[in-house]
Amino acid sequence: MHPDLVLTNARLLDPGSGNLLPQDALVLSGGRIAGFEAAAAPGVEVLDLDGAVVVPGLVDGHLHPVSGAERTAGADLSGCTDLAGLRAELASARRELKDGQWLRGWGLDPNAFGDLPVSADTVGLVLDGIPAAIDLFDAHSMLVSRRALELAGIDGPRRFEQGSAAVVCDPSGRPTGLLLEDAACELVEAVAPRPSFAELCRATAEVLRRMAAAGLTGGHAMDANGESLAVYAALEEQGRLPLRLRIAPWVQPGAGPAELAELIRRQGEGGRRWRVDGAKLFMDGTIDNGTAWLEHPDCHGESTGAFWPDPAEYTRVIGELHRAGVPTATHAIGDAAVRHVLDAVERAVAAHGPGARHRVEHVETVPDDTVARFAALGVTASMQPTHCTEYTRADHTDNWSRRLGEERANRAFRCRDLADAGARVVLGSDWPIAPFEPLGVMAGARHRRPGRDLRQPPHLPGQALTPLQALGGYTLAPAWAAGEEDRAGRLAVGHRADLTVLAENPLTVPDTELAGVPVLLTVSGGEVTHRAV
């Protein structure tokens, strides 16, 4: 063994027990953890960590690096809390436009509209005469200007393969400017300017650099759309891919045998730090838009249908992928959607035996009997606690909670119930839906307060995770979900040298201070990808 890097004077934290290991050094060789006894070797860098805490590399269980890099190129509207603020931000962005240029925005919270409809008319004159496309925070809907509708040829309702996709229209059949789900949004994206491949690579590289600086060594990328796989390959060739990415291409309603066969064939495709592994499906949309699939309608009579117009076809596809050994991750937010995914997995396992590991993404509101099924079926719950803390309110006056009503809003984002029931809970950000900083997500999982104002009361504090559970959600759980528990997620000899070094012990720092703990070093496969020591 010839060491590549030696870390000394370290506190090594085990995410399983929460204890510090008795050793104080790590030897990294060939991209793996080679041992715990520091030994001098010619030409080997030795880093004295001065008592800093080393944890296994933090992995975001749900993010969108390439599409997010493109999506966040416009005006950041995530700080707009009312219409006056939204109009001011849009007016400022409009002043920066050149003739004919599109106004793009992202991160818009529908709560900014109060009780008014999310529509171009509600926004007002600021968008008149210009093409504009604004992503709402959930990335499942878009608000576009009248000019953008005109350029896209949208003058009334449309029918789509995606069951919950829609061009929202007023009672007269005139589009309001609100588009729901990808199929509808793509009508405008098809005529809007797109970045060049080089521009997309540069933007993605910068995002990944910032993710590494935040302590991330990996992520489960929930799309392979457009040129994203080519972007990852190009960045790795250029030495600008600091994260290890596990990528799940989408399977959409209407996918035929040839498409499924191609997806199965592509499993394992990739490079040193990226690979295609799994499939991403959708069972519903979002509660804020009325496109989730609920067992009972929301307060507007919406959220009553599945993303797959024929849910039985989804069940068949899950069975085929399971039989082929392809792990799946299904977006399911409403109780009916989550229940259907679990039913489909149960049928697949009964028909073909155990094998591929499946997961449900988001799990925003479910009853007790659904919670209990995750552990029994071995299905991972992939949760984003900051979606709860940043976009809902403890008093249930937010759009999400009002749509659901008290009963369902009171069973929101049940991270703790799922963990206590024995389910593996993977944590993540769903960036760009919410900030990607892992310490901030873990903090939100623990204190259940909005990170922008920690003075606010906690959202359903009984669902708070313990510090050890939150750390496991970024280490042990994503390793298990990826089938890599024998080589990732722990500080053990032979495991990958993916490490995050923190200035303080994340298990003992107060919940409300965790997000501010400095990340001193990030190491991916033995290579330093961020250094502040």
TrEMBL record:
Q: Which Gene3D superfamilies match?
A: 3.10.310.70, Metal-dependent hydrolases (3.20.20.140), Urease, subunit C, domain 1 (2.30.40.10)
Coiled-coil region list: none
Task: Outline the extent of the Amidohydrolase domain.
Answer: 45-529
Specify the species.
Kitasatospora saccharophila
One of the Pfam families matching this protein, by short name: Amidohydro_3
Q: Which PANTHER family match?
A: IMIDAZOLONEPROPIONASE (PTHR22642), PROTEIN LONG AFTER FAR-RED 3 (PTHR22642:SF2)
Q: What is this protein called?
A: Amidohydrolase
